[in-house]
Amino acid sequence: MRTEVDEVLIALADPVRRQVVDELRRGPRRAGELADSAGMSFPAISRHLRVLRASRLVEVRALDEDARVRVYHLRAEPFVALRAWLDQVEAFWTEQLGAFSDYAKKRKEE
User: Fold this and answer.
1) Which residues are in the HTH arsR-type domain (predicted)?
2) Does the pTM exceed 0.90?
């Protein structure tokens, strides 16, 4: 069973999708703008956007002035979940390294 963090990591495993996320950090963008910045065709970027939407990293909205135009933007929640998981991993390794440091100091004193 996949978790939200699993879906985020799978989506971010692809360098093109990470590039899209980096572009969206600067602000909302149309799919065509994202395709241009990635140097890809519209169908190719659409496949990546579909994965990012499925992982809930991005949302798409229609413009008020033209409902045919779709604009993509980042969602904060999946990144919060990822950060929480990374904090847990970091705490584990900090504890492990601290224990090793204590062991090394004790061995040195002996």
Assistant:
1) 1-91
2) no
